[in-house]
Design a protein that fits this description.
11 helices
Amino acid sequence: MTFGAPAALWALAAVPVLIVLYLLRVRRREHVVSSVLLWVKSQPSWAAFRPSRRVERSLLLLLQIVAAAALAAALAQPALLGWTAGSGDVVLVLDGSMSMRARDVAPTRFDRARAEARDVLAHLGPDRRAALVLAAAHPLVLVPPTADRGRLAAALAHAQPWDVAGDVRGAIDLAAQLVPGPHGRIFVWTDAARSPVPALPNVTARILGTADENTGVVALRVLPDADTARVLVRVTNFGHAAVRAPLRVTRDGSAAYGATLALAAGETRTVVFPVSSPRGKADAGVLRAQLDVRDALPDDKTAEALLAPAPLPSVLLVGPDDPPLERLLRVAPVSRAAVTRETDPAAWRGYDVVILDRVTTGAVPPGRYLAIGTVPPNLPANPSGVVDAPDIATWDRRDPVLRFVDFGDVHVRQALRLAPDSGRVLAAGPSPLLWAYESRGMRAIVLAFGLGDSDLPQHVAFPVLVVNSLAWLGGDTGGLQAGQTLEVPAAGGDRAMVVRPDGTRIDVPARDGAFAFALPRAGVYRLTTPAGERAVSVSVGSETAGLIAPGPAAAAASQPPVQRVLARLALWPWLVLGAAAVALGEWALATRRRGGDA
């Protein structure tokens, strides 16, 4: 049972008022007598006991109490609720935002949504199909339409919110594709903290949560410097009241910074401070930022980040002697570098990046490649002849491969004529001269000319271009956010072990030459592969993920969704009719008694 206007239950206070009036009411009846002498003598005793007399059994009083209570309950608009899912297939959409971990609904908003979703499944007929969609950073189909209740129940049990702002609207669009037609129903559980649920005929929503006060760490960044690291911590007060938030930052358990931040409603504060390394370099340790604030969402009170830089890639140079490139690899930021003339891909196993320098090869397996003056046949660059003396007319300075690269004074004698049908062109003249490609476990950069066919090695653009290319090819993990997928070269390995921030372990098989796995939570992930161990830090997927208060549009829709999701049998009309019937009965009984006594 639910109440549309629970405040109206205060009208039940009329019941004790009726009882008090009954106790104080003067009950007089007129009688014709011959003398009042004896009555006058008993008047003091009668008057002394009248105000405090006990409540006598009275059918009239009982009927009045019942009528008043029924009217008060009717004003509160009671209704009986029960799930209804129509006659077609259904899709259950759970909001996977971090805000769904708020504990203003016991035990959490997401746990309540999960319980109600189970209730919907319990009321479906055995021949009805259901699907399950999680509105994470990108909508995920956890279970396609099926009548297998066990599979649905298992998926519900394992579903968890991500540290992101969930894409509820995208999840609803995806759900509409799973159950097309007018008979399919889409049930949505969300807190509508960032956007309202679209009003569609076949979409019913359950808006969860009432709290709005939350203060959390929305960003923790490490900015390396020469001999120190500068740490950036950003804290946001999502609530509507000012707070004082004690902030403490530790490095491997030792205090590194502390302050108390005074935040107005809706204010974001950023603090920056240095952290030194015992060896003069910020190359080790884990930073942990902690807020000492109590509110409905405890999950965003901590954040972790690595002080260590991303692991350096191992590089294998395949081709004839190339002194400029070999000298550069000896000083480049790589873990190890080797040179070989072996063009058999089986000899390249164990290296993160392979540089193919003016060599002819067959189709290359999935991996990371920098091709200089050559194009493997299974890359869609489509070389056809050469271009003489091409000018480098344009290049994309915003691309990470060309960051700080200037081709303005570089001259090329000849280059391959490329006609790529996918990927992205980074630099071009009469035809593409630098091209990048990423698909199906393959990540490659093609430089259309050999170093000996240009004066590029004589310019500062040469080392910058090579270092940027190796960083991109090696899978630079800087700036990872929850909700993304991390892809690491398999380097010949078959399986990897990943330890998530919460301590859970997952086994990741190699696919298309890479280990790929989703990042649902913020924190430090540790990956163990045949090539060694590495750790990466992941930040919150969105700085609005900690917003737990529904916005104005969502708040206005917070009542109708409950009525749409649940079959609602209104009880107040029956209560009004019952109160009227009881009142008429009390009037008729009182009138009859007075008439009989007359």
